[in-house]
Amino acid sequence: MILTVTLNPAIDKILIVDTFEVHKLHRLQSGEMSMVSAGGKGVNIAQLLAKLNHEVIASGFAGGHSGHMLCDAIREQGITTNFIFTQGATRTNISILDRKNETLTEINDFGQEISEEDMRFFIENFERLLSRVQVIVIAGSLPRGVSPEIYIELIQKARKKGKKVIIHTSPKHMDILLEAQPFLINPDMRSDHTLFGQTVDGVDQFLEAGEDILRKCPESQFVIFTHRLENVVAVTRSMGYVMRPKDMNIVNMLGYGDAYLGGFIHALEQGYSVKNTLQYASAAGLTDVEDIHKEILDVSKIDSNLYRIEIDEIKL
Q: How does 185-206 read in b/e, with b if 16+ C-beta sit within 10 Å?
């Protein structure tokens, strides 16, 4: 069983227009141009894993009417929910996809504030869940009131129980992650291309940064950079891998990194080799961006896209 932790989940509202302009009235042409779904990175990953026939528990914080909507939507997909309900309301994030100009405008709400008491309840609940799961995914932003130190506490508790922890969060928390040493580190560098105060971009810099992180984290096994779709870079203790999807037709960038990690976890749990795991993960990401929906509706397309992933192997 797999546990996903989304500390700052959301209701995602996606609006699709042909040309988005400020100071202008936009009318949606059909119901398909407006989509509402449960969101937050860990939630998105849980949804893909459930479609791939994994047993999944989704956890985190929720609040208010929107929090009940969130949990209902997650359970409808066959996922067990284990959220701590708090004061305030689960946030709503709005994304505006302009099909003609190929732009994506995102407006993310600030979310609810988490009290020390709610945080304590969550940690106690997290410890109880550890006996039921093998893999833990911690993904997404931190809500107000929660210190980045929470990553150390959660990861170390899981590691003491022999669980694999995969984390996808802002690179500004990298110092914390070096201490926690999760199994896999996937920095969310969509809007922040810096690590340890230095700009990191391009294959060579990703390879170097991944090696540096693994040198500082003797218990970690993977560092993966997914924000450059044309050159996804993975670093292990002995090899570097560059995944290049062929002939991409990008329709929607929402959910790419989440689909990638969901695909990675699925392949890892199936016992695939490292190379084949990374290939499957990239095929999942590719499948996601070539559809207008945030999530992959037909997971069989992932296997159909495996041949489109070219992989360069680099001995480190």
A: bbbbbeeebebeeeebeebebb
Report all structural domains of the chain as residue ranges with CATH numbers, in order of start: 2-7+41-87+114-315 (3.40.1190.20)
Query: For residues 150, 154, 155 and 160, what is the CA-based torsion angle, rounded to 10 degrees?
Result: 140
Q: 254-274 pLDDT, tens per residue?
A: 889 999 999 999 999 999 999
pLDDT of residue 32: 66
Question: Rounded to the nearest 5 degrees, what angle is found at the Cα of 166, between the Cα atoms of 162 and 168?
Answer: 155
Strand pairing partners for 104? 97
CA distance 8 to 61: 7
Q: What is the pLDDT of residues 83-92, one digit of tens each?
A: 999 999 999 9
Residue count (the chain): 316
The full 3-state SS of the chain, as one line of letters, equals CEEEEECCCEEEEEEEECCCCCCCCCCCCCHHHEEEEEECHHHHHHHHHHHCCCCEEEEEEEEHHHHHHHHHHHHCCCCEEEEEEECCCCEEEEEEEECCCCEEEEECCCCCECCHHHHHHHHHHHHHHHHHCCEEEEECCCCECCCCHHHHHHHHHHHHCCCEEEEEECHHHHHHHHHHCCCEEEECCCCCCEECCEECCCHHHHHHHHHHHHHHCCCCCEEEECCCHHHEEEECCCEEEEEEECCCCCCCCCCHHHHHHHHHHHHHHCCCCHHHHHHHHHHHHHHHHCCCCCCCCCCHHHHHCHHHEEEEEEEC
**Among 156, 225, 212, residue whose Cα is nearest residue 185:** 225
- Burial string for 86-103 (b: 16+ CB within 10 Å, else e) reads bebbbbbbebbbbeeeee
